């Protein structure tokens, strides 16, 4: 439960930043969906075996500071742009050409991690054998062919 010092406001908005503080962001709304991804791009950009990402509408998102982007081509053929702080290298967000009106915020950059409880896991077939996957969270071996309607 959020208290008065929490970075999550009572309207569901939240804040975050990079490691050095040169980049800050704010979302006026809570996440539409929180997903955990085990694809290679998410794994390598996170520095661990997965990335937890919060989907928010681009028009509810404000960024201060400058990010550097690195583009990769997803299995689907979509372009995924990873946004990093050019000073400290922290991964802050990503954008996907399939959903240009959404921002995918890296949970590692949140001020309040409690809002990042995964609601789905994708590319679970690529998770390492030692990764525990919560049996109560919908899990897909690859990317589902259809995303939940609230996301797209």
Automatic annotation (TrEMBL):
Keyword Zinc appears in the UniProt entry: yes
PANTHER family, per database record: CENP-V_GFA DOMAIN-CONTAINING PROTEIN-RELATED (PTHR33337:SF40), GFA DOMAIN-CONTAINING PROTEIN (PTHR33337)
InterPro entries: CENP-V/GFA, Mss4-like_sf
A GO term, aspect molecular function: metal ion binding
Domain CENP-V/GFA: 14-131
Gene3D superfamilies: glutathione-dependent formaldehyde- activating enzyme (gfa) (3.90.1590.10)
SUPFAM superfamilies: Mss4-like
Family matches, as PROSITE patterns: CENP_V_GFA
This protein's UniProt keywords: Lyase, Metal-binding, Zinc
Record's protein name: Aldehyde-activating protein
Domain of life: Bacteria
Record family assignment: Belongs to the Gfa family.
């Amino acid at each position: 439960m959020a208290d008065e010092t929490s970075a999550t406001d009572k309207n569901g908005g939240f804040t975050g930043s990079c490691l050095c503080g040169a980049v800050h962001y704010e979302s006026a709304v809570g996440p539409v969906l929180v997903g955990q991804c085990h694809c290679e791009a998410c794994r390598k950009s996170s520095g661990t075996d997965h990335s937890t990402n919060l989907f928010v509408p681009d028009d509810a998102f404000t960024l201060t500071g400058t990010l550097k982007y690195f583009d990769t081509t997803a299995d689907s053929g979509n372009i995924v742009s990873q946004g990093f702080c050019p000073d400290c290298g922290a991964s802050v967000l990503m954008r996907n050409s399939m959903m240009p009106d959404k921002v995918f915020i890296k949970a590692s950059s949140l001020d309040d991690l409690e809002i990042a409880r995964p609601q789905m896991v994708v590319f679970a077939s690529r998770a390492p054998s030692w990764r525990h996957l919560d049996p109560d969270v919908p899990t897909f071996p690859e990317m589902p062919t259809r995303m939940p309607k609230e996301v797209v």
